[in-house]
Write a structure and sequence with these properties.
single chain; 4 strands; 8 helices; mainly alpha; two-stranded antiparallel sheet; 2 domains; 4% strand; f41 fragment of flagellin, N-terminal domain
């Protein structure tokens, strides 16, 4: 028959006390941090699940940042197009004024001077940049969209970015059909200023139709930009819904049920007290030890 020695008894009690203290430490850490799973040993399956959720959140965050940058780029284009349209509206007002028979040569010279200023302003707007890149140059963002004569010299479409969960958008805004489509707007504005200076009223009247076409070009372009901004709105809303769902799942899987953890901690404290008491009684000195 195997005799259990005092050393063996002591080893058993020490191990039990050690396990109880380790469990107490784990519970105290969970309560303090609010996290039930912080390392693989806490719960391997849940830890792996949480890692996948964290990776998914990182993907969504990256797409969200891209969506925000894309929105800024397209909203910059939209604001410039709005300013351009207002510029053409003012050009129309001045042209109609100049066609009025009550205006004299000096009046038309003043109008022509303002038309040239508006032409310069329009040209500056076509060269709008953000972060050093030309907004209306398509994929050739390092090149001004228009040459001096108003012809398009930028690139085409192709700047496709991911803005959400399997959602992409092309943020390249192409100035070709905007500024050099059926009407070359820069050339038109220059012609209007010159015709006003020379008081060529017949040519001014004929160019009003071209001014209508120029405004329509900008409206069509702005509609396209607006549609892409709306697409980003939808993507951002969907991304936020998905993100909130993942955060909720993370809480359900990895967060501490504080009430249950505190209850379990109290049980472990009582277990530790009992273990210490039992250990103290079990390893009282024997008569042989005293002798």
């Amino acid at each position: 028959m195997t005799r259990v020695t005092d050393r063996q008894i002591l080893t058993q009690h020490t191990a039990r006390i050690g396990r109880t203290r380790a469990e107490q430490s784990r519970l105290q850490e969970q309560i303090a941090s609010g996290k039930r799973v912080q390392r693989p040993s806490d719960d391997p399956q849940s830890y792996s699940h949480l890692e996948r959720l964290s990776h998914r959140l990182a993907q969504l965050e990256g797409a969200g940042q891209t969506a925000a940058a894309s929105r800024t780029r397209l909203e910059t284009a939209d604001k410039a197009l709005d300013n351009m349209h207002n510029t053409l509206s003012r050009v129309r007002e001045l042209t109609i004024q100049g066609l009025n028979s009550s205006y004299n040569t000096n009046d038309r010279q003043d109008i022509a001077a303002e038309l040239r200023q508006l032409s310069d302003h329009f040209g500056a707007l076509t060269a709008t940049r953000i972060d050093g890149e030309y907004v209306f140059s398509g994929t050739k963002t390092d090149t001004p969209p228009l040459a001096d004569d108003g012809t398009y010299q930028g690139g085409g479409p192709g700047t496709v970015v991911e803005i959400g969960d399997n959602t992409r958008v092309d943020v390249a805004v192409i100035g070709d059909e905007l500024f050099d489509g059926d009407v070359n707007i820069v050339q038109l504005l220059s012609e209007l200023a010159e015709q006003m200076e020379t008081e060529d009223l017949d040519a001014l009247g004929d160019n009003l139709a071209n001014l209508d076409a120029a405004e329509e070009q900008l409206i069509v372009g702005r509609t396209s930009v607006g549609a892409r901004i709306s697409r980003i709105d939808v993507a951002e809303t969907l991304t936020e819904d998905i993100r909130l769902g993942i955060l909720k799942e993370q809480q359900d899987v990895g967060d501490t049920d504080v009430a249950s953890a505190i209850s379990e901690l109290l049980v472990q404290e009582r277990s530790l007290q009992a273990a210490v008491q039992v250990a103290g009684r079990s390893i009282q000195p024997s008569l042989l030890d005293i002798l």
